[in-house]
Amino acid sequence: MVSEIGIKQYYEQFRRECLQELREAEAELVKIEKDIVTLRTEILDLYLNIKNSTGVDIKEYKSEFYNIKYDASSDLQSRIKSYVTNVEGFNPKTMTARKNAAKVLTYIGLLKAKYEQNQFKNFALDKLKITSSDFRKYIEVFYKYGVSKCLLQGYGYRFNYGLGILLICNIQRDKPWTNVDVVKSNENKRKLIEQGLKPYDKKEAAIYKARGLKYDGVEYLVYRQIENVDKVVLLKDKKNTKGKITFKPSKSDAGLKGYKIEEITKLVKTEEDVFKIRCGIRIKLLIYKKVVPGCSLKYIRDVKRGNYIREFNRQNRQRFQS
């Protein structure tokens, strides 16, 4: 039993699906080829009848009747269809001529179907050439760029198998949330150090207090009141009966470890640059909000405290699908 599904399992499933597509295409080609041979023989036996009634010499169409290939630029289909559509009368001779002409149209349809199935077959063969390392790169580009772009621009991304719809929601709070303003706090801390003062440290203060000593650390934290917050949520998840999803930081954020959001933002020039950053959606959202001020207006506003689904349906967001 596999405890966690990873890239390896996805790749194996991808190859199984490709092999299935290949088998289906090959089986369909065998059936189509058989029908083509049978119908071509019938049509060639009716060659003179078709030529005299429709005025079309099918033997002039080398691609269809000699190379047995579909030719999208050929006018054979349009000429035969024009005859079938415009011929008048319902006498036995006319009905027979129309029926024979219809066989040509069916034959062309089979040639087109053969061409399309060969396309499906070749596409499946090409996909089977994709290595595990290439597959990993494609998946990373899709989720790290495609899905994150979808969410950041205010859309929802729908997962298959009832896993739900991922999107960013602007959650309104009944009571303002007190939070540390990291940027201003760090600026205060820097100024204290430049002045030769000691920034307050909770652990250090506790040690001084335990020893009965006076602590001279200066408080530098700046607090702010937050009335709403942008949060990544999962809606309509049929697999989760508790109705609560906890998102953990992505391992891909490790490449940004040690860098502050402000430092990364200075290196980002455009909105498109944010989509290309290799990190999880939580970090990317913080950067995006710095680069695209007012982006929160794109996100669903949770006025009713957790009533994401009603608001989602009301705004009728476009949904991408995995």
Listing every helix as H and every strand as E from the N terminus to the C terminus, the arrangement reads HHHHHHEEHHEHHHEHE
The total beta strand count reads 5
Total number of domains: 3
Number of helices: 12
**Rg over CA atoms:** 33 Å
Fraction of helical residues: 40-55%
Write a structural description:
The chain is of the alpha/beta class and 322 residues long. It folds into 3 domains: 7-130; 142-181 and 228-321, no CATH class; 182-221, no CATH class. The chain contains 12 helices and 5 strands. The protein has helices spanning 7-45, 47-54, 62-65, 76-86, 92-128, 132-152, 182-194, 202-210, 261-267, 271-276, 281-291, 308-315; strands at 156-159, 164-180, 223-235, 300-302, 319-321. Strands 1, 2, 3, 4 and 5 form a 5-stranded mixed β-sheet that branches. The longest helix is centred in the N-terminal third of the chain and has 39 residues, at 7-45. The protein is elongated. The mean pLDDT is 84.
